[in-house]
Amino acid sequence: MSAILEEIISHKRIEVEAMSTQEVVRSRRPVSFVKRLENATTMSIIGEVKRASPSKGDINIGIDPKAQAEKYVKGGVDVISVLTDRNYFKGSLRDLETVKCTVDVPVLNKDFIIDERQIDRAYLYGADIILLIVAALDDETIARLYDYAGSYGMECIVEVHTKAEMERALKLEPELIGINNRDLKTFEVDIANTEQLLSEYGNADTIFISESGIRTEEDAERMQAAGARALLVGETLMRAEDPEQVIESLKVAL
Ligand SMILES: O=C(O)c1ccccc1NCC(=O)[C@H](O)[C@H](O)COP(=O)(O)O
């Protein structure tokens, strides 16, 4: 595990230890991203609410998540991702709740999930999808958390960066795999990572999402040619003067 991921995960362990187990009334039915993807004729876009990050520091710290979510939906996003980690990304569960109350598209809770209690909380604050990072979890834990999220009807994006992580992810036979183009050891971002992994694993029976470092229509075309069906875009949209126009340009034909 990279040093930053190890540091974030050890903070999460402390956070989780302080959380109590709660009875959750499962009255809300999560909105499916997979179903939406079945009918997609263009690249699907996951627009992210990302105030800050370990690699970039403050990105758009004072953003109004409601206004940003409205712009994303106007531009045609298929999912909104909300970073809820406070220590490293300056996000919050309140951001997640605000976005969920603003939009009808599925909402992804982007956090560092290591325990069922975080999944209970994600559901309670409105998440339809969660992220499971292969590098941060052993095989038994990922499988357990994957099934637990599924018991709520939530979908999981199983995130990988390397070939070894891809092999581990595929054992789960997940519907969605996110390929992170950011190397968390160096913070270097290179979208060629998606191309390299999909040249070997592109035929797998799963939907691939390319994550991080997507900026231009040309990037979207490269990812489409590589076999990605969706893009997760954070910083580019958070810094854009006109996020709607950027989203439109990234929705290239499949
Ligand atoms: O972004 C970081 O610096 C980072 C550091 C450590 C762990 C995760 C990190 N990012 C989370 C993400 O996966 C990105 O927010 C997401 O893929 C969007 O990336 P980008 O479009 O490059 O902002």
Automatic annotation (TrEMBL):
**One of this protein's Pfam families, by short name?**
IGPS
Q: Name one GO biological process term.
A: L-tryptophan biosynthetic process
Give the source's domain of life in one word. Answer: Bacteria
Q: Which reaction does it catalyse?
A: 1-(2-carboxyphenylamino)-1-deoxy-D-ribulose 5-phosphate + H(+) = (1S,2R)-1-C-(indol-3-yl)glycerol 3-phosphate + CO2 + H2O
Q: Which residue ranges does the record assign to the Indole-3-glycerol phosphate synthase domain?
A: 5-250
Alphabetized GO MF terms: indole-3-glycerol-phosphate synthase activity; phosphoribosylanthranilate isomerase activity
Q: Which PANTHER family match?
A: INDOLE-3-GLYCEROL-PHOSPHATE SYNTHASE, TRYPTOPHAN BIOSYNTHESIS PROTEIN
Give the family this protein belongs to, as stated in its UniProt record.
Belongs to the TrpC family.
**Designated name of the protein:** Indole-3-glycerol phosphate synthase
UniProt source species:
Salinicoccus hispanicus
Q: By which gene is this protein encoded?
A: trpC
